[in-house]
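Practice problem 4.
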């Protein structure tokens, strides 16, 4: 390093040193002759590197924002679906499809069966109504379900498997709703459901036969 590259500074009387010997301080300063300026090609290369780095950083941020937006959109759609199902469930809980008066004719019951068969919402609503029935046993549940739908004189027109005089009710949507509620909600077995269903229709026939002589004597 050349002497011209330094400014010599003598010890100043205003500066107090604890050492007894005098000290000489040197302040390093680059001389104008040693400074060099960057050429235009190097400056352009550096600027291009900075621009590329900034662009890549921006692209990463944009990609991350897209992923966040996609995730938020999916969550919102899921919430909307949950709210829709909840509203539907609340609507079912506040609604009923069971008749306020028992079906007194076969034609009325068949119209009800057709409505339940063609509309899944009504089918689900019927199951919801049946779930609210309280019984002491699973077999009594089948009997109570039938008694909530039809008079005995309508019930005597049906049987579980069907006969020459009686319509088969086994394949009816109403029977399916009762079966599904019986097995899923009440823990009943299929054979118990079949037995209880047969008993219900037979009991309706027997009850009508018992009542008929009494009514004729009036």
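Answer key:
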């Amino acid at each position: 390093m050349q002497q011209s590259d330094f400014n010599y500074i003598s010890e100043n009387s205003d500066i107090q040193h604890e050492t007894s010997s005098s000290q000489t301080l040197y302040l390093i300063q680059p001389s104008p002759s040693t400074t060099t300026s960057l050429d235009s090609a190097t400056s352009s290369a550096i600027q291009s590197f900075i621009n590329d780095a900034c662009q890549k950083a921006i692209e990463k941020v944009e990609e991350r924002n897209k992923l966040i937006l996609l995730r938020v959109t999916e969550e919102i759609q899921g919430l909307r679906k949950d709210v829709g199902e909840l509203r539907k469930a609340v609507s079912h809980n506040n609604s009923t499809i069971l008749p306020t008066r028992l079906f007194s004719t076969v034609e009325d019951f068949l119209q009800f069966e057709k409505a339940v068969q063609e509309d899944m919402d009504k089918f689900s609503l019927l199951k919801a109504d049946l779930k609210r029935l309280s019984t002491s046993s699973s077999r009594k549940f089948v009997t109570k379900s039938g008694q909530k739908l039809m008079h005995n004189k309508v019930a005597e027109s049906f049987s579980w498997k069907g006969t020459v005089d009686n319509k088969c009710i086994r394949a009816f949507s109403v029977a399916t709703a009762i079966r599904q509620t019986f097995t899923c909600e009440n823990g009943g077995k299929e054979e118990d459901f079949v037995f209880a269903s047969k008993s219900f229709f037979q009991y309706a026939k027997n009850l009508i036969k018992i009542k008929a002589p009494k009514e004729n004597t009036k």
